[in-house]
Amino acid sequence: MSRELWLLRHGKAERYDGNEDYDRRLKKRGKRDVAHMGEWLKEQGLLPDAVVSSPAIRAIMTAKKVCDVLEIDREHILMDKRLYDEGMVRVKSVLADCPATSSRVLLVSHNPELEDLLTYLVNPTHLPETEKLLPTAALVRLVLPDDWTQLEKGCAELLCITSPKSLAEESEESIEQ
């Protein structure tokens, strides 16, 4: 059995104005984009077994919005401070602590940690060549080995990277047809 890890970068947040970065909230566009990602997950029949989020306000707002769209009780969101500004090694430690019984884990966090984790887990030749791998509200689906305590470099299979922009482009194409 293989397990899936879903990486979701928080939605577009207020500009950093010198106040506490941790307290930045989602902008209107961020809320809309995150809701679209939740709707896409629902349309695909994709429901996580576990949701783990950074405790930063913009990440929690993102996790709550997605859970609302997926009709998952917000009480099931686990907050983990290791997902906020502590580096990729700490993010890997969060994964190691995820219950082995969870076959689909949604991790809501930030860059650069998410992009660093993605480029570690997936062979770089299998990643798209783009300036920004994970724009705000982008979702990555990865297949990982069962044991998340020993995740080796290049051990994941990339299923997809979906962004609000790619969903909008798909929607426009279907309207044109």
- Average pLDDT, rounded to a whole number, is 92
User: Could you give me the name of the CATH homologous superfamily?
Assistant: Phosphoglycerate mutase-like
Please give the largest β-sheet. Answer: 6 strands, mixed
Give me the strand/helix succession.
EHEHEHEHEEH
The end-to-end span amounts to: 39 Å
CATH topology heading: Rossmann fold
Structural class: alpha/beta
Domain count: 1
CATH class identity: Alpha Beta
Spatial strand arrangement across the major sheet = 3-2-4-1-5-6
Rg for CA atoms: 15 Å
- Beta content: 15-25%
Poorly predicted residue ranges: none
> Helix proportion of residues, in percent?
25-40%
In a nutshell, what does this entry contain?
With 177 residues, this protein is of the alpha/beta class.
Provide an overview of this structure.
There is one protein chain. The protein has 177 residues and is an alpha/beta fold. The chain has a single domain, classed as Rossmann fold. The protein is built from five helices and six strands. It has helices at 28-43, 57-70, 88-96, 113-121, 164-176; strands spanning 3-9, 50-53, 77-79, 104-109, 139-144, 157-162. Strands 3-2-4-1-5-6 form a six-stranded mixed beta sheet, with helices on both faces. The radius of gyration is 15 Å and the shape is globular. It starts with a strand and ends with a helix. The mean pLDDT is 92.
Topology:
Blueprint: E1 3-9, H1 28-43, E2 50-53, H2 57-70, E3 77-79, H3 88-96, E4 104-109, H4 113-121, E5 139-144, E6 157-162, H5 164-176
Parallel strand pairs: 1-4, 2-3, 2-4
Antiparallel strand pairs: 1-5, 5-6
Helix pairs in contact: 1-2
